[in-house]
Amino acid sequence: MGKTVELKRTLNLFDATSIGIGAIIGAGIFVVLGIAVGYAGPAVIVSMIIAGTVALFTALSFSELSSAIPKEGGTYEFAYEMIHPFAGFISGCMWLFAQTVAGAAVCLGLASYFVGLFPFFPVKIVAVSAALALTVLNLMGMKHSARVNNVLVVIKIVILCFFVGVGVFHVNPQNYSNFAPNGFFGILQGAGFIFFAYLGFGRIAALGEEVENPKRTLPLAILLALAASMILYVVTGLVATGLVDSGNLAKFGSGSPIAYAAKATGNFAVVATVSFGALVATVSVLLTNLLGLSRVSFAMARNGQFPKSLAKIHSKLGTPYLSILITGALMAVLAFVSDLRQAAAITSFSMLTTHIILHSAAIRLRKKIPNLKTFKVPLYPLVPSLGLASCVILMFSLPMESWIVSAAAIVAVSLLYLLRRRP
Question: Model-level pTM?
Answer without folding.
Answer: 0.81
